[in-house]
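Dear U.,

Please find below the material for section 3 of the report. The protein was modelled together with zinc ion; I have listed the sequence and SMILES used, followed by the predicted complex structure.
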Amino acid sequence: MTRPSMTPATAGEVFTLIRGGAATTRSEIGKLTGLSRTAVSARVAALQSLGLIADDEEGPSTGGRPPATLAFADSAGVVLVVAIGRSRAQLAVTDLAGAILAAEDVDKPVNVGPDDLMPDIATHLTSLLDRVDRKGDDVIGVGLSIPGTVDMTAGASLDSPMMAGWDGVALAPYLTSVTDAPLFVDNDANVMALAELSERRESAPNLLMIKASTGLGAGIVLNGVLQRGSIGAAGEIGHTKTAAARGMKCRCGDVGCVETVASGWALVHALQDQGRDVGHVRDVIRLALDGDGEARRLIRSSGRLIGDVIAGAVNLLNPDVLIIGGDMSEADELFLAGLRESVYGNATALATRKLHIASVSHGAQSGILGCAILVLDHLLSARQIDLRLAGGPGA
Ligand SMILES: [Zn+2]
């Protein structure tokens, strides 16, 4: 770790070294930061006062006193997670390392509106906390994602035509019966990008996440930082116009969007029009994996059409890796083959020279993991830890 030599490392920066596993003893911290033994001890003591560092003084008693091992106390609190999808919400409690301690799905569509869905979610979160023997006071933060554009300052949906009744409605007040901890809200593809970044921070700091489910969306990471754009609307690729969708009416109210020919809802409608008994994109995937010819054809075609749109984004951003998540990725090669063909065929040879295309690392848990990371990356950042120690916000 290289840092300006004139500013001594703060307690928050020392915490980052311990949390990331870069340092496990006081002398390692000293070597990495240039801090004196006294200064290291003072910072470690401050972190221990927050309960964030476990100090293992126990060790073999022979041969002198061994160096005490320092470790991040990942059980010092918990995070609540709510990944809201179009047809269900995935809930979880995680520890401070993002490991899932308990999880549960609430099968209720988002279009019932926040007054119907959020009280249900609050009830289930309380029972999840009970299940892991924790209380609202143990919660350091709540991470929530929605399938739409988010006003992060308001903690609300900004403009989501598909989520009737949610726009501008602050979501934090619905959860006050569960915990007083702060709520963080973000877009579903964005949190999936955060989950993927945690796996690939070193190997692929430029990452494009495509969520292909009922709707289509993207999360963009450049140089290890999630890009939300000017008003949070970056990545809304589902409503990119494409020739194959010319004149077709989209649920956003516009015509010609790629969603009308390639999204999960479009595939469901296409099969329903043929009199098939399907209600969700997961039904289409199941049919395809069972060998249904028409379902397979639709999924292949969807991969190609989405790939056409992504090719433009690949030219623009030159990502290291393109990650495919959401329900459609469960069809694996059936979906990926067409997408790969379109991306490599339509993007420039230069932009795709080193491009790697892969499925999400955490499958269906990608969204809940990303919501936990949204909270942890903020609340456990060096800056936030220093603010807490200075008696600032969150102290
Ligand atoms: Zn549209």
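For the text of the report, you could mention the following: The domain at 199-361 is CATH 3.30.420.40 (Nucleotidyltransferase; domain 5).

Regards,
Y.
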